[in-house]
Amino acid sequence: MSDIEGKKLLILGGAPMWVDIVKAAHALGVHSTVVDWHKDRRLSPAKLLADSSYDISIFDVDALLEVISKDKIDGVLTGYTDIVLEPYVALCHRAGLWCYGTPDQFTQLTDKSRFKELCKICSVPIIDGITVDCENLEEAYSYSDYPLVIKPSDSCGARGIRLVKNRNELSQSIDYAAIYSKSKRYIIEQFLDHKMEFMACYTICDGEIVLSALCDRFKSYEIPGFSAVPLCQYFPSIHIDRYLSEVDESVRRLANYIELKNCYLSIQGFVDSDRFYVNEAGFRLGGGQFYNFTEYVNGTNSLKRLIRYALTGRMLSRDDSLTFDNSRFDKVCGTVFVNAMPGVIHAIDGLDVIAEENPEVIHVMQQAQPGDRIESTGSLNHVIARIKIVAVDERNFAEVVRRVMARCRVTDSEGNSMLMKPLAFNADNYPLDGSSNEPISFSEKELL
Q1: Which helix (H) or strand (E) holds 259?
Q2: Long-range contacts of range 357-360, CB-CB < 8 Å, 24 or more positions apart?
């Protein structure tokens, strides 16, 4: 019997992504209790799998403290969106349970303007820009490096981000960003036109830092004026040697500077043939759920490590070690996103059979349902499903993606397809940015 078997974990959130936490807890022999405010289990499917659940707002810390006391909860965990972090920190603090970060660490890593300042201190390469608030908006109007991007300092999931092509669009874009910002502080920075994106995933145990995974991220620009919508996260990154040489040391410096001890940290940004540009961090389980790939490839799982930490204050079991982490995957892995254009979904077909038809598909997570309205936001609101693939090489990966995307259908009430343009492939080239029809080989180093 393991040292955590039979312990009780309180999970803040029950949406489709949180199902992973319930499944991981059960795999470890841990009792799971899911809480959120949704009574409709269609909106909170994690409750259907959990050992117990409550229809309580995750922001009602007093009510959650009563659950912890009554049910003898041993630990608390959440993830996937920044909005849940504030109640998570408050609940752990008041209940005297393990929390993987301090309040100041969460603020420094989730507030985009604070993170930029932290990057400057630690020499992490960032995008040029300024931070403004309602008191100094005139500085925004003096910024002349168009096109530019404006985004709330305190939002996540690409919410509130607008592409601004000229000064005439700035006022409306600030008003839009304000909808998604409690602080009313905004970052204005240079628009990096269709550069490839990357994400680095670090695991930190007792202050020791390892790079667990590094991926390239491909986006669609079909929704004009908004942030790009994800098409694919591809592991391992073709830029891994450059990243280790140009960025990794500064990120480790940053983690040590704010004294991170036991946690998961992601770093996101852009890359071209000249340099890397870091633009934000993630201090929580990420929507990319990269632990599904690392467990398959090398037996490590950051989600299970965080569950263990929540229950014991230790990340690693006796059989686990950071030496097992290796960002140079020996297989080609990727998350492919099924995205929809604005409208009301009438039917979703194909997702229920693609795993049976393709042994390379290890996980399918459906996020939307018939009847859902997709708003034109250019955010993760457009994502219908995430499909995780483990392939033997690039060509195998390309073939599986073609088969999978040909099987998926999302239609409106008149039978019209709502699908965004998927990843483009041909016989000798692999996934590319959805903004272009010209294929770019994954081995090509000089990116357009």
Answers
A1: none
A2: 357/403, 357/407, 358/389, 358/400, 358/403, 358/404, 360/389, 360/390, 360/391, 360/396, 360/397, 360/400
This prediction has a pTM of 0.88
- Amino acid symbol at 296: Y
**Gap between the Cα atoms of 213 and 210, Å rounded:** 9
Domain 196-411 has CATH 3.30.470.20: yes
| Distance from the Cα of residue 92 to its chain's centroid | 23
Token look-up 């397809």 returns 417
Tokens for 45?
């499917």
- Written as one string, the DSSP assignment of 72-129 is T--EEE--SSGGGHHHHHHHHHHHT---SS-HHHHHHHHSHHHHHHHHHHHT--B--E
For residue 392, the tally of other CB atoms under 10 A from its CB is: 11
Q: Which residues contact 315 (CB under 8 A, 6 or more apart)?
A: 203, 205, 206, 262, 305, 306, 308, 309
In angstroms, the CA 343 to CA 302 distance is 36
Count Cα neighbours of 327 within 13 Å in the Cβ-side half-sphere.
22
Tell me which fold the domain 128-190 belongs to.
Dna Ligase; domain 1 (3.30.1490)
Is the separation of the CB atoms in 291 and 21 below 8 Å? no
Residues in a beta bridge with 208: 205
For the chain, the domains span 8-99, 128-190, 196-411
| pLDDT, block means (10 residues), the chain with 448 residues | 92 96 98 96 94 98 98 97 95 98 96 93 92 72 79 75 82 80 82 83 98 92 69 94 98 98 96 92 92 96 98 96 96 95 96 96 94 83 94 92 94 95 59 38 29
- The angle formed by the CA atoms of residues 93, 2 and 207, to the nearest 5 degrees, is 50
Q: Please give the class, per CATH, of domain 8-99.
A: alpha beta
